[in-house]
Amino acid sequence: MISDGDLYRLAIFLGSCAMMMIVLYHFLDVNARDDKEPAESNSVKPARAAAKATSTPASESTPTTSPPTGNAL
Fold first, then answer.
1. pTM
2. Burial class, 16, CB count within 10 angstroms (exposed 0-12 / middle 13-18 / buried 19+)
3. Which membrane topology term applies here (predicted)?
4. Where are the beta strands (DSSP E) in the chain?
5. Contacts of 65 by beta carbon, 8 Å cutoff, 6+ apart
6. What is the C-alpha R_g of the chain?
7. Range of the domain at 37
8. Tens-place pLDDT, residues 33-51
């Protein structure tokens, strides 16, 4: 049968290995090169820029009025 000390050491070891694997995964994911991204982003950027240039902000399209106060009797 496994003792409490052995179970504790096994849990610490497996938890440490899991954390190292998570850190390694994120390191590799952040530093991975995306070959398809530059070609895809070049075609999307002009459309986004055109949409931003033609749209009007909400503050320009609707007039702003102050809410009525209870002092007008």
1. 0.44
2. exposed
3. Single-pass type III membrane protein
4. none
5. none
6. 29
7. 4-48
8. 887 755 555 555 555 555 6
